[in-house]
Amino acid sequence: MMKLFLLTVLSFCSYLGSGIFNNALASNVSLHNTPAYIQHELKPIPNSFQLAKATFLPDYAEGPFSGYKLDGDYNQKGNCDDEDTLYTKQNCTYPKAVVAASSCPFLPGYYTDCKCLPQFKLTSCKSPYILGGDSCEGKYEKCVCPATVSLVYANDKCTQYCEGKCIKKSCTPETNQTGCTNGLQNCDNKCGQNTRKCCVPCVNKITSKPENSSYTYSSCTDGNGTKQIQTGWKCNSGYHQYGNSCVAHSYSCPSGYQESSSGMISPVSSAKICSCGATSGTCYRESHTHSYSPCPSGYQESACSSSQVQTATSYKKCNCGATNGTCYACRAMTCEEKGQKTCNGSCISTSSCCGDCPNGQTCKNGSCVAAEKKCSDSGYYGGTACSKWSGYTMSKCSTEYGSMGSSCNQSGQVGSGTCDVDSWRRCCEQCNGYLM
């Protein structure tokens, strides 16, 4: 009965000062005897239990009452008899929340139900969207676009979009090239792999040729189509190949013939013979029964050439006793007679040196002397055309000259060139018109 009295106090604390509370206390009535209309109007105020306990039950320490649990008889709503199985706003958190309608009437802040928030209701999305955001018991609050993909390769193509962004792509590799003249090599297939077979590019096989010659061409096919590339060279008309040079044809009449038909009776003709095997021009001799002996030994039928010295003349003898045709005794001109000098059995210019000059020397006026540091005759320094320095001012040349000179290393190199900085300076000055 002591515990019943306490419950009565707890239920009526919010009505302090009323006649109902005083009458109930004086009559020692229980909550069960309180009229129904009064029970419906009772509303506990915050901390009312602590106030009641402190005021009315100062000596109730010997009993088992804890101050937080109530007998099942008074838990008229749900399963509010054990707070360990109940929910509070501390143990029922996002994405769930306590259900206000499940609150325990005699345990403020305790609830019997903890459910997912109402926005968690989606279980599927319309393509291309997918479930996204937070979830609660397998349900989601929103539909989102899948992760985007990037178009990084040349043949990447977007196959599906979501809100204007690409979410799926495909890539079709380039096919292999065919009909390649120079063979195949691996190349990019435009999908990030180096597995495509591409033509080895067509480039010129040679890039230089001798004077008096022309390039020869061949057809070549690569990934850019078919084109003509330089594959060789041939001498121009009037020239024939001699080693790696093209020299002019040298024609002469056959033995017994001459270039002019003047004074001949019924001349017959033949062609001039070239040392290269070609023929050109016409040669003549008389057509009669006379038989002329060939030129005497040591003589020739043609006049001495410009590279020969005539030493004597004779005539062909005819079986009739007449003479016809001049025979010439010739010898080759010496190098000195040609205004040249002899070098190992050949003639060279008097201003040339016989053989190569030692390193560090150059040929000057026919003698090997110390090489002068200057731009080469072809207008290059260190493999670079002098025109490269045409943008340099004299002031810039002076600055670079000092810088290059101080940068020479022990191996005689500065950058990719040599330490011949004086030649560089002269090349630079020559391009600026200060050095002739």
Task: List its salient traits.
alpha+beta; two-stranded antiparallel sheet; single chain
Explained architecture:
With 436 residues, this protein is α+β, with helices and mostly antiparallel strands. Among the domains are: 2-67, no CATH class; 377-436. It has 6 helices and 25 strands. The strands form 12 sheets. The chain has a 3-stranded antiparallel β-sheet, with no helix packed on it. Strand 9 and strand 10 form a beta hairpin. The longest helix is centred in the C-terminal third of the chain and has 13 residues, at 394-406. The chain starts with a helix and ends in a 5-residue tail after the last helix. Residues 1-43, 45-77 and 373-377 have low confidence and may be disordered.
Task: Give me a quick take on this structure.
The chain is an alpha+beta fold and 436 residues long. It is built from six helices and 25 strands.
